[in-house]
Q: What sequence folds into this?
């Protein structure tokens, strides 16, 4: 069964550094998402992306965040200047239709900001 | 108003018993209610979903009950098995309003004792 893959599985970075989290969505999917889960808390929506542009973003997704689909397969989340509170699991997801169709999540990247 | 309140936070059920997890919401525009299952080290996986035009949906041992007037929905796991031990998240979406991002509950850590 096709799956969403995320790399790296764990990233440690120093406060103020830039990080790029990478995702390869399922190949025939058109809608892409990033969610995050702070340890022990709920999963929170960050951003959705379709047709090479952001279609929706949450309050969490401020100017330090950006997303990109640099080629036909990768989908990236960049955090420009990391803060301690950015430490979380970041999940990429994709779907073949918009919004109310099943989301397929990757296994996440654990980001630790020290 | 965007919150989804989930209870209990943790639940222990004997093998063969019924596991019941409850969620409540305020936003009457929500029109899609999925449940996700998450195992340690994995991303959430869609278990079952319901729309507000039906009061119940069953897939195998998993049933969603939906009460539109009370703005509540619940997941029932019949004949619970140790392999069902996981964290369960309810979620909601205003797809008719063009939203993409799911609003998740805080999760229920379910343990099925053999």
A:
């Amino acid at each position: 069964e096709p799956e969403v893959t995320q790399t790296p599985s764990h990233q440690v970075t120093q406060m103020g550094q830039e990080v790029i989290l990478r995702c390869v969505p399922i190949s025939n999917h058109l809608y892409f998402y990033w969610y995050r889960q702070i340890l022990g808390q709920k999963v929170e929506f960050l951003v959705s992306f379709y047709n090479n542009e952001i279609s929706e973003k949450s309050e969490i997704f401020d100017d330090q965040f950006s997303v990109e689909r640099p080629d036909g397969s990768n989908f990236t989340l960049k955090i420009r200047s990391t803060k301690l509170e950015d430490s979380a699991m970041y999940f990429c997801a994709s779907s073949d239709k918009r919004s109310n169709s099943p989301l397929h999540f990757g296994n996440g990247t654990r980001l630790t900001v020290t | 108003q965007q919150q989804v309140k989930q209870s209990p936070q943790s639940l222990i059920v004997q093998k063969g018993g019924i596991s019941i997890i409850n969620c409540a919401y305020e936003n009457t525009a929500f029109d899609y209610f999925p449940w996700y299952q998450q195992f340690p080290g994995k991303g959430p996986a869609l278990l079952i979903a319901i729309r507000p035009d039906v009061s119940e949906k069953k897939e195998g041992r998993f049933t969603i009950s939906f009460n539109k007037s009370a703005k509540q929905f619940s997941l029932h796991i019949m004949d619970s098995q140790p392999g069902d031990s996981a964290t369960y998240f309810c979620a909601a979406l205003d797809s008719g309003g063009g939203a993409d991002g799911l609003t998740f509950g805080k999760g229920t850590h379910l343990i099925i004792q053999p």
